[in-house]
Amino acid sequence: MLHITGRISIPLSEIEIKAVRAQGAGGQNVNKVSSAIHLRFDIPASSLPDAIKERLLQLNDQRITKQGVVVIKAQAYRSQEQNCDEALERLRDLVGSVAVLAKKRRPTQPTRSSQKRRLESKNKRGQLKAARRRSPLDS
What we know:
This protein is an alpha+beta fold. The protein has one domain: Double Stranded RNA Binding Domain, CATH 3.30.160.20. The chain is 40% helix and 17% strand. The protein contains 4 helices and 5 strands. Strands 3-4-5 form a 3-stranded antiparallel sheet, covered by helices on one side. Strands 1-2 form a two-stranded antiparallel sheet. The mean pLDDT is 84.
């Protein structure tokens, strides 16, 4: 089980993990060993709650295909186990980001004293600038 929050978890049977060869430089090791991990997770077919499924599908994330499949490739490490752990952690972060709802912002009004302070500081600044101007009598 991949635990997301206290109540939400994903069975490992719903996550498809496949080892592939890593890209880039690495010498002989990269040519012989399949150390990179391709993780695939089908959102619509998963056992996640419907609300979380909807929020995941509405995310504008390049890792989610049009069919609703999360594809994560992890190849930062030389060991397959570390890459697998990193891919699962990235999936946990992705699902966890939509699991917690952001609080709704309640619009507030500025207090009367803060409005008064703001107007007084504007007036003081205006008087300071007016004092810098040359008067017409000086010329």
